[in-house]
Specification:
Chain lengths: 519, 662
């Protein structure tokens, strides 16, 4: 099992699916949807099988495959999975079918091509799998840039029908930001190649080889910044974030889910996969700056979320706060914080994904993203309100939901290394309660805003099928997160051990870390 | 076995007291059922939807009662064990394992959690039964029972967890249940606002609890009770660290228990249905702060500084609750502030350290009975008066609802400390012990507690007389006419049982110091206090002061007529005006936190738009009006994109050729 080329299959299936769906004539919209659903479910099954075949205790990449691509320049098609990339691929594979099903009727509006929409989703899935699977830095760069194209069209062509100017603006802004970051990264990628050519005689883009290089601190800093800025824009971290609210608001719901749920994770993934192992000295040098930006982001994002009136922008700003937590955990260099950060990436995809989905359902019923257009929806659509609340509680990291585990791990892990920072960051949980529950109060409680709203229907069967697995995972992973932690922890521990970081020991240990009366 | 052994060994190496929990076997392997039963009830009722409307309330009550039965079985199981073997720990599964951070879901059934389990499930079951009647006309009754079951499960998790992170889980989940139940009638904006306020203020406290846990992990390397308490008892944690831990725990306790300075949410929480006020916001959840401090006794034992803060908070809160309790005319608000001040007594007691932990718990249990009874009684009155909550619109109700009158009356006598009833024994002991603390501070704490007893007698007598006695001040005719009537048996039954508890519980606890001896293995020996003033004198003092409070209220509210409309602010004293405004606590929060927060938020929204985004837009435009040009046509843009990809590739190739050449 473990020798099967899981990753390559996971790349080929959505790529071929995308081409097939794209070639369908426009009138075969339903067929396109069904095909897209089948293909995305197939990828999900593959991802689950791959996870089952993955051995967490084995060091290094698994399911690895490598073929020369541009031999002259040392570029290869190399893929492989470690604990970090595997869970993110799993997340992507889970969210795409959810998005396909939640977008079932969305693409019908206006005179847009339904097959093209679903083909774009599958193309995006190919890019997302590729970017996590790549173990060749150049291949990673190619996927990193290639993902932009379907996302650009999803925003530009399938955003809100009547807001043509705004959605083009948002799409272009998204693309410009990403391109700018991408070019910086490209320069750094080339720099890495040059260094490797200097040291090894022949240049290479192979990640495993590159991390063995001894790069001088000065060069490390430059290359680090090239990667870091690209990732900080992608994630985004404060102050590289202003594209996100526009893109989040102007994306079709499905696009927003994938954009914030998965695409942005490429940024946080890049931080822990590339920035830290490739440039350990620079990572250590810049860590205080990153940690400061992270904590600022937690509060900045939360306060701005509280002040928003557009529900989708609001959710986008909450993500800024969450990315702050992720960056905080990544750059504290303890295994708890790092594991928490990676788990946070998955959990954020689920909670914010569900939040975007539900907000999308709500907007579809009323046609407005403005908070003040709503009120008393819990009376009219109790199930929708309940799911909204569950997604929100996950977003504010209530124990019993998935996000609590990751957020607490980040905080406790940061605390052992940077006590003051952790104390400040923990205060952010009060703001999280405010931005979620204040939104809930304004939209769901109180008297029904407008008598017409009483005719609105609660979640349909299709919509319930969309949210049910998300709700189940949010609670399931809150109660029993061990399967994911067992996959993530060894990789994160190894990443930090590699750069000479180990967890600080407790100052007054009484018992060896014991597991409480297991007898 | 191995783990417990390791804890003992390690603690012994430090020369400290060992903390030993026996592994669960036999009946105790069913401890998890206590939580699972109400949790399953909640799940069925929430997922089953309207299909379960017809029998939902019955299922909810049944799971609560079943959990109570399991609690009784385990309690008697505990009685059968020897004194130092009465702490049984059940490991369920590994929850959050990341290298050195190993947190398991495990339960601890010991002397302390046992009394809480009985209180929560016992009073909880009674209030479930009461709610069958109280909520009989409410279309959302099933949802109500689902939330109450969820609350029971969360609260049981809180008191049963065997490590601080599981406790934290229960802690925040009771916050969620409280939130859901305060806003149960969420179409009322006031209810929705009160629910949010409760959650926000609780979260402020939760920050403290979370940070305390982080301190524990970074110091001790574990969040398990046995490890943390072992380290605390062994005195290996620095004084600064352990004081920080204690104060952070205290912050959490203040949030949950509505203690100064986080008390303002609790009176607003009365927007929830009255059974909720009785169960969550009087008898159980709000006393979780007291549980937390008593549970963490080994930590508080090490730090006099933190205990002093507990004492001060307790004393201040007693007075705040008492003073405001005198000013309100809304029956539930008065009871709410009374709860605030009674929990102040419990904080004062546990702040006294080993001498007071058990006293705090005794008062907590007695209060659980009489305050739940008083709230249910007020619910019965409100029910009979078609939702009217203004006591100025009551009067002479004893004739119309005799059972409510008697049961409420017994609860009233219990809370003011009428000789022989629960409150007499438990409150008296706290005042005694505070005075015996020694030094000037002992007289201050004792004096405040004594004064509080007098004011309590005043405002509770005021409430009782305005409600049940004097002239009827409600409309007898016309559209606003009220027809007060006694409540159905499902409601009066629980009220009668709670009245029995209000009468006898206190006496049972002090009989042969039974409760103090029972809890001694958990909180340490209480020891013999040195009394400057003999207990008999203290008792006499308390009685005199309370009688004074009673007399004051009797003169004012029985012998003189009560106005049906409260006098305007201009005609009453400054103190009354301040008390009507909750001693400006809300104003303070608004001025210090809310307004500045709003301004900051507005400023940031503006700044983000014109500042950061504007800077980026500006520089992008400066780089050749790129964005404007690109926005015009998509095709043009795609060309640019392709061009940049091409440019990138050329760069790569160029660089590669260069390095080759070099």
């Amino acid at each position: 099992m473990s020798t099967a080329p899981w990753l390559t299959i996971m790349l080929i299936v959505p790529a071929v699916g995308s081409l097939v769906v794209a070639s369908l004539p426009r009138r075969h919209g339903t067929l396109a949807k069904q095909l897209a659903l089948v293909v995305s479910l197939a990828v999900l099954v593959l991802a689950v099988l791959a996870t089952a075949a993955y051995d967490p205790d084995k060091a290094g990449f698994q399911f690895g495959q490598s073929y020369d691509w541009i031999k002259e320049f040392g570029v290869s098609y190399s893929v492989g999975a470690d604990g970090i990339s595997l869970v993110l691929m799993l997340l992507a594979a889970l969210l795409v079918p959810v998005v396909v099903l939640s977008s079932w009727d969305e693409a019908e509006e206006g005179r847009r091509s339904v097959p093209a929409f679903f083909a774009l989703l599958l193309a995006l899935e190919t890019g997302m799998v590729g970017v996590f699977a790549a173990t060749d830095v150049f291949l990673f760069y190619v996927f990193f840039e290639a993902m932009l194209i379907p996302m650009y069209f999803l925003i530009g062509s399938y955003g809100p029908v009547e807001e043509k100017a705004q959605r083009s603006y948002a799409a272009v802004k998204f693309l410009l930001y990403s391109l700018f970051g991408g070019l910086l990264m490209l320069a750094a990628v080339i720099g890495l190649y040059v260094v490797s050519a200097d040291q090894l005689g022949t240049g290479t883009f192979d990640f495993a080889t590159l991390r063995q290089l001894e790069i001088t601190p000065g060069v490390q800093k430059l290359l680090f910044l090239g990667f870091f800025i690209a990732f900080a824009i992608k994630a985004p971290l404060f102050p590289f974030h202003t594209w996100l609210p526009d893109a989040g608001a102007q994306s079709p719901t499905g696009g927003a889910v994938l954009l914030v749920g998965v695409l942005d994770k490429v940024g946080t993934f890049g931080l822990i996969r590339y920035c830290i192992p490739l440039f350990p000295d620079a990572a250590e040098y810049f860590a205080p700056m990153v940690l400061a930006l992270a904590v600022i982001g937690i509060f900045y994002g939360a306060l701005l979320a509280i002040g928003q009136r557009d529900m989708k922008r609001l959710v986008a700003y909450t993500s800024l706060a969450h990315f702050g937590f992720i960056a905080l955990g990544t750059f504290a260099f303890t295994s708890q914080a790092g594991t928490g950060a990676v788990l946070y990436m998955v959990n954020h995809g689920l909670s914010t994904g569900l939040l975007f989905v539900v907000v999308g359902f709500l907007v579809a019923r009323r046609g407005s993203r403005d908070v003040s257009a709503y009120g008393g929806m819990a009376q009219v659509t109790p199930i929708l309100a309940g799911v909204f609340l569950i997604a929100g509680l996950s977003s504010l990291a209530l124990p019993g939901t998935n996000s609590f585990v990751s957020e607490f791990l980040v905080l406790v892990g940061v605390f052992t290394e940077y006590r003051a920072l952790a104390i400040v960051a923990t205060c952010g949980i009060v703001l999280a309660a405010i931005y979620i529950l204040y939104l809930y109060q304004r939209t769901m409680t109180g008297p029904v805003k407008d008598e017409k709203m009483r005719l609105v229907k609660d979640l349909s069967v299709r919509e319930r099928v969309v949210v049910a697995p998300m709700v189940a995972l949010i609670i399931g992973l809150g109660v029993y997160p061990k399967p994911l932690l067992d996959i993530i922890t060894p990789t994160v521990t190894a990443t930090f051990a590699d750069i000479g970081k180990s967890d600080p020991a407790p100052t007054a240990p009484v018992a060896a870390p014991e597991s409480g009366g297991r007898s | 076995m191995s783990a417990g052994g390791a804890a003992i060994l390690a603690a012994d190496e430090h020369g400290g007291a060992a903390v030993h929990y026996a592994a669960a076997s036999g009946a105790f392997s069913l401890t998890w059922l206590l939580i699972a039963l109400p949790l399953a009830g909640a799940a069925v009722l929430l997922l089953g939807g309207r299909r379960t409307d017809r029998w939902g309330h019955l299922l909810g009550t049944l799971t609560a009662a079943a959990s109570f039965v399991v609690g009784l079985v385990l309690f008697f199981g505990l009685l059968d064990r020897s004194g130092d073997d009465r702490a049984v720990s059940q490991h369920l599964y590994s929850w959050i394992p990341v290298n050195g951070f190993q947190v398991d879901v495990g339960l601890l059934f010991d002397q302390l959690s046992a009394v809480f389990v009985l209180l929560i499930t016992g009073v909880g079951t009674l209030i479930h039964i009461y709610s069958i009647g109280y909520m009989s006309h409410d279309p959302g009754r099933r949802r109500f029972f689902a939330y109450m079951n969820l609350f029971l499960a969360s609260m049981l998790l809180l008191v049963l967890g065997n490590n601080f992170l599981v406790l934290y889980g229960g802690w925040e989940l009771v916050g969620l249940s409280s939130f859901l139940l305060i806003k149960f009638w969420e179409y009322k904006p006031a209810a929705a606002t009160a629910a949010n306020k409760a959650f926000y203020m609780n979260r402020v406290g939760d920050v403290g609890l979370a940070l305390a846990i982080m301190f524990m992990f970074s110091t001790v390397g574990s969040t398990n009770y046995d490890s943390v308490f072992g380290a605390a008892a062994a005195d290996v944690i620095g004084y600064g660290t352990i004081t920080a831990m204690a104060l952070l725990l205290l912050l959490g306790a203040c949030g949950k228990s509505g203690q100064f300075p986080l008390q303002a949410w609790l009176p607003d929480a009365m927007e929830g249905p009255t059974p909720i006020s009785a169960l969550i916001h009087a008898a159980t959840m709000v006393t979780a702060g007291v549980y937390l401090i008593v549970r963490a006794a080994p930590i508080f034992d090490q730090t006099q500084a933190a205990r002093t803060v507990v004492l001060i908070i307790g004393a201040v809160t007693i007075l705040i609750g008492c003073v405001i309790g005198c000013a309100y005319d809304d029956i539930k608000k008065v009871l709410a502030y009374s709860t605030v001040s009674q929990i102040g007594y419990m904080f004062l007691a546990v702040g006294l350290g080993p001498a007071g932990y058990a006293l705090g718990i005794m008062h907590l249990l007695a209060h659980g009975f009489f305050k739940a009874g008083l709230f249910l009684g007020s619910g019965s009155v409100i029910h009979g008066m078609d939702g009217e909550q203004d006591m100025r619109r009551y009067g002479g109700l004893w004739r119309h609802m005799p059972i409510t009158w008697v049961t409420f009356g017994l609860g009233y006598l219990a809370i003011i400390g009428f000789p022989g009833l629960s409150g007499f024994f438990t409150k008296d002991r706290i005042i005694e012990t505070a005075l015996a603390k020694g030094g000037t501070s002992g007289y201050i704490y004792g004096g405040v507690a004594l004064l509080g007893a007098g004011i309590t007698a005043f405002y509770m007598t005021r409430l009782f007389l305005m409600t049940f006695h004097g002239k009827a001040r409600w409309e007898h005719d016309g559209p606003e006419a009220k027809h007060p009537h006694e409540s159905p048996a499902t409601m009066t039954g629980p009220m009668m049982l709670l009245a029995v508890g209000s009468v006898f519980a206190g006496g049972l606890f002090v009989l042969g110091s039974s409760m103090q001896n029972w809890l001694a293995p958990v909180v340490g020996e209480h020891g013999e206090a040195h009394h400057d003033i003999s207990p008999a004198v203290v008792t006499a003092l308390v009685l005199v002061v309370s009688a004074g409070g009673f007399a004051g209220a009797y003169l004012r509210y029985q012998l003189r007529p009560v106005e049906a409309v409260a006098r305007p602010d201009a005609e009453v004293s400054v103190v009354t005006v301040a008390a009507r405004r909750d001693l400006y606590a809300n104003t303070f929060n608004e001025v210090v936190a809310m307004r500045p927060g709003q301004y900051l938020t507005r400023f940031l929204v503006w700044a983000d738009n014109v500042g950061i985004d504007g800077f980026v837009r500006g520089s992008a435009a400066a780089v050749g009006g790129l964005s404007g040009r690109l926005r015009r046509t998509q095709t043009g843009f795609v060309r640019s994109y392709a061009l940049s990809m091409l440019g990138g590739t050329v760069l790569v190739v160029g660089a590669l050729l260069l390095t080759r050449a070099g």
